[in-house]
Amino acid sequence: MTESDPLRVGDSRVEVIDPRVMRDVLGHFASGVTVVTADADEGPIGFTCQSFSSLSLDPPLVALAPARTSRTWPRLRDLGRFCVNVLAEDQAGLSSAFARSGVDKFAGVSWRPSRQGSPVLDGVVAWLDCTLWAEYDGGDHTIVAARVLDLAADPQRRPLLFHRGRYGLVEDAGA
Description:
There is one protein chain. This protein is mostly beta strands. It has one domain (about 30-165): Pnp Oxidase, Chain A (Roll). The chain is built from three helices and 14 strands. The protein has helices at about 20-25, 75-80, 90-100; strands spanning about 5-10, 10-15, 30, 35-40, 45-50, 50-55, 60-65, 80-85, 110-115, 120, 125-140, 140-155, 160-165, 165. Strands 5-4-8-11-12-7-6 form a seven-stranded antiparallel sheet. A three-stranded antiparallel sheet has the order 3-13-14, with no helix packed on it. Strand 11 and strand 12 (about 140-155) form a beta hairpin. The mean pLDDT is about 90.
């Protein structure tokens, strides 16, 4: 099937969406940036995750969606507990550092352990200590529902936003 081949959904024909177009269109939705962390036997681990949201108040659940290509998520899944750190506007460097593979992501990073033992990064806007609740197939991502055990926020900090492929809100040059 090519990108222009239609799919059949019920009695309707649906055009296949070009992934580049979908990424561009959805890039117009500004999102926060998180770093998901845990303390493993070999030391702290973590990864940057832009796909994060509130899910439920009763029970207290959040959702995140790590890429299927993530090498860190399977290790966090096996631990069953982790901390979602909501980055502040001056922490773009942390976002980039935790998005890399094959490096010590915690080199030079200040943090303290949560009550559950997961790293809470210094200077974040908010953090949520979680346990794995459920996982679902999300195409090229895994949809993770996590139960919140503990959380806190710093109302004096502003969040790091990702918009149209860059950090911060991107102004339209033609406007």
